[in-house]
Design goal:
By secondary structure, the protein is an all-beta fold. It has one domain (about 20-69). The chain is built from no helices and 8 strands. The chain has strands at about 20, 25-30, 30-35, 40, 45-50, 50-55, 60, 65-69. The N and C termini lie far apart (about 25 Å).
Amino acid sequence: NDAPSGAAGSPFNQSVAVVVGGDKSAFYHCGFYSAHNTLFDYKGRHFYESCYIQGSIDFIYGQAQSLFK
């Protein structure tokens, strides 16, 4: 994640660790780490098996249909 620093309070200065927008995407034995906005399940159908997702605020969000195993 190499997003530039922005002004505090601006909604346009946030970066996401991972954005998944493809249909039928699958992840196996992966790690996703971020303090804020870790995994954005944008759209599509996704499968996560044996994945570690770490964050403190909005760590998994979006409109996708996802299965976590």
